[in-house]
C-alpha cells in the first residue's frame, strides 16, 4: 500500500517536475504544509510574471516561512566545493528513503550520458536540448542571518556552474577569500534562468548557509545588476553581481531584446553571456576589509525564526492560485490545463480577478486543489504520452 502510494506520487512528479537543488540547509525541505513530506516538490516550480513578494525566494507558496532545522546549514568551504542534489522531487534525492529512488539524473530515471532531444528534453524538465545548451545556475550569498533582511542589493553571486542543471549531484566552487558569516549563518540563494525550451521563467530559492574554514576578512562589495555582454567582455558588469531577475511583473534587473549569437532570442543566464565566469566568482571582495562583512547587522536568531502561521495560511492559498498560471509551461501543457475541470477554471478566474475571498481558503479547499493539481498533472502525462507516440 505504502509502496503503491509512493510509486503513484513519484510517477506523477516525473512529468510536471521542474528542478531545484536539495540540501538539508534549504528552506522548504519538508514542503510548505507544516508536516514532513518526503515526496515534496513545493520548491521546484518556476517563477514567471509575478509580483516581487511572490517570486522573491519562492514566496508565492510560502517557502521562506519554512526554514531548515536548527543547526542545518549549507556549508560553504572556503576555497573548496560543496555539493547539492538537483532533482525534481525530494523523493529522488538521498534526503528521502535512504536514496532508494536516486539515479545519476534528477528524476530517478536513467538516460544516456549524451542525452539530447532536438525538441528539448522535457523528462526531466531541464529546459535544454542537451548538456552543452544547459544555461547554468548559481548560488549567491547575503551576509545576514535574517532572511527578511535579504534584498537584491545584498545578495551576491559567489559561484556559478556552467551547463547545469544537468545531473543530480552538482558541485559549486567557493572563493578562497569568502569571509565568515555572522554566528547565525548567512542566507544563500540559488538561481537558474533557463535558455529557452519552454516558458522563459526563472528559479529563486533560499538556503541557510555558512562559510567554513574562512581565513580572509575581505568583505564582499555592493553588487550591481549583470548585463547582456555576449562576445563583448568589456561590456560586462565587473566585480560583484546581483542575481538575475527576469520576466517578472516587478523587480526585474535585466532587459534584453533581439537575438543572441546563435540566432535564438536572447535569454540572460549565469554564463559568459552575462559576464559570469564558471566556478568561484573571485572578483566580489570589493568591500571594506573589516571583521566579517559589510552586510546588514544581524542577530543569531536565524536558527529559531520558525514558521509564522499567519503568513503561511495566506501564502499557501496564493500558491494554488499561482500554480494555475505558473505551471502553464509548454504548448502541450496548456492543452492539459484548459482541458481540466471547472474547479481549476474557477480558481484561475478567482486568481485573475484577485478576489479577496480567495486568500482565505479552508484547509479542505486547499487539499481539494492539491488533488486537482495532481489530476491535471496526470492528464498532462497522458497527453504527453499520446504526443510522444505521434512524433
Ligand atoms: C545541443 O543542442 C543544440 C541545439 O539543438 C545543437 O545545436 C547541438 O549540436 C547539440 N549538442 C550536442 C553535443 O548534442
Topology:
Elements: H1 2-16, E1 20-22, H2 52-55, E2 74-77, E3 81-87, E4 137-142, E5 156-161, E6 169-173, E7 186-192, E8 203-212, E9 279-280, H3 309-326, H4 331-338, H5 342-353, H6 363-390
The structure holds 2-acetamido-2-deoxy-beta-D-glucopyranose.
GO molecular function: metal ion binding; monooxygenase activity
Biased composition (Basic residues): 382-391
Subcellular location: Secreted
Strand content: 5-15%
Radius of gyration: 20 Å
Sketch the topology as an H/E string, one letter per element. Answer: HEHEEEEEEEEHHHH
Architecture in CATH?
Distorted Sandwich
Mean pLDDT: 79
The geometry reads as globular
What is the count of structural domains? 1
Distance between the termini: 36 Å
Any idea of the CATH topology? Answer: Coagulation Factor XIII, Chain A, domain 1
Number of strands: 9
Taking the sheet with the most strands, its summary is: 6 strands, mixed
State the helical fraction: 10-25%
**Widest sheet: strand order?**
2-8-7-4-5-9
- Uncertain ranges: 1-15, 292-366, 374-391
Record keyword descriptors for this entry.
single chain, 391 residues, alpha+beta, Coagulation Factor XIII, Chain A, domain 1, six-stranded mixed sheet, three-stranded antiparallel sheet, 13% strand, globular, disordered N terminus, disordered C terminus, binds 2-acetamido-2-deoxy-beta-D-glucopyranose
Describe the structure in your own words.
- By secondary structure, this protein is of the alpha+beta class.
- The protein has a single domain (18-319), classed as Coagulation Factor XIII, Chain A, domain 1 (Distorted Sandwich).
- The protein is 22% helix and 13% strand.
- It has 6 helices and 9 strands.
- The strands form 2 sheets. A 6-stranded mixed beta sheet has the order 2-8-7-4-5-9, with no helix packed on it. A 3-stranded antiparallel beta sheet has the order 1-3-6, with no helix packed on it.
- α1 (2-16) packs across α6, α3 (309-326) packs across α5 and α4 (331-338) packs across α6 (363-390).
- The two termini are 36 Å apart.
- Residues 1-15, 292-366 and 374-391 have low confidence and may be disordered.
- Residues 116, 118, 129-130, 132-133 line the site of 2-acetamido-2-deoxy-beta-D-glucopyranose.
- Its cofactor is Cu(2+).
- Its main location: secreted.
- It is found in: Secreted.
- It holds the Pfam family LPMO_AA14.
- Residues 1-17 form the signal peptide.
Amino acid at each position: 500500500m505504502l509502496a503503491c502510494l509512493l510509486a503513484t506520487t513519484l510517477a506523477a512528479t516525473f512529468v510536471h517536475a521542474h528542478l531545484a537543488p536539495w540540501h538539508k540547509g534549504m528552506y522548504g525541505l519538508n514542503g510548505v504544509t507544516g508536516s514532513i513530506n518526503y515526496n515534496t516538490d513545493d520548491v521546484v516550480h518556476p517563477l514567471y510574471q509575478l509580483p516581487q513578494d511572490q517570486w522573491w525566494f519562492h514566496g508565492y507558496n510560502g517557502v521562506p516561512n519554512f526554514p531548515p532545522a536548527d543547526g542545518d546549514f549549507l556549508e560553504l568551504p572556503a576555497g573548496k566545493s560543496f555539493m547539492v542534489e538537483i532533482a525534481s522531487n525530494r523523493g529522488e534525492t538521498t534526503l528521502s528513503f535512504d536514496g532508494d529512488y536516486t539515479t545519476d539524473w534528477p528524476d530517478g530515471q536513467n538516460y544516456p550520458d549524451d542525452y539530447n532531444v532536438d525538441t528539448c528534453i522535457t523528462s526531466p524538465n531541464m529546459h535544454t536540448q542537451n548538456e552543452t545548451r544547459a544555461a547554468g545556475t548559481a548560488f549567491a550569498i547575503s551576509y545576514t542571518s535574517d532572511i527578511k533582511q535579504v534584498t537584491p542589493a545584498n545578495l551576491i553571486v559567489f559561484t556559478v556552474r556552467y551547463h547545469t542543471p544537468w545531473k543530480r549531484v552538482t558541485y559549486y566552487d567557493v572563493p578562497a577569500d569568502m569571509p565568515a558569516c555572522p554566528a547565525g549563518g548567512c542566507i544563500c540563494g540559488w538561481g537558474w534562468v533557463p535558455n529557452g525550451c519552454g516558458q522563459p521563467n526563472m528559479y529563486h530559492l533560499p538556503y541557510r548557509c555558512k562559510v567554513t574554514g574562512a581565513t580572509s576578512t575581505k568583505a564582499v562589495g555592493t553588487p550591481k545588476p549583470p548585463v547582456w555582454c555576449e562576445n563583448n567582455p568589456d561590456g560586462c558588469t565587473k566585480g560583484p553581481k546581483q542575481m538575475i531577475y527576469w520576466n517578472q511583473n516587478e523587480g526585474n534587473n535585466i532587459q534584453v531584446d533581439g537575438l543572441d549569437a546563435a540566432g535564438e532570442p536572447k535569454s540572460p543566464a549565469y554564463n559568459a553571456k552575462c559576464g559570469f565566469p564558471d566556478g568561484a566568482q573571485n572578483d566580489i571582495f570589493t568591500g571594506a576589509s573589516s571583521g566579517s562583512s559589510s552586510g546588514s547587522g544581524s542577530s543569531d536568531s536565524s536558527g529559531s525564526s520558525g514558521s509564522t502561521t499567519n503568513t503561511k495560511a495566506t501564502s499557501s492559498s496564493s500558491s494554488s492560485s499561482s500554480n494555475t498560471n505558473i505551471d502553464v509551461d509548454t504548448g502541450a501543457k496548456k492543452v492539459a490545463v484548459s482541458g481540466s475541470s471547472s474547479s481549476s477554471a474557477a480558481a484561475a478566474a478567482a486568481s485573475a480577478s484577485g478576489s479577496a475571498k480567495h486568500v482565505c481558503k479552508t484547509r479542505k479547499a486547499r487539499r481539494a486543489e492539491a488533488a486537482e493539481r495532481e489530476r491535471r498533472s496526470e492528464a498532462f502525462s497522458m497527453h504527453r504520452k499520446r504526443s510522444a507516440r505521434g512524433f
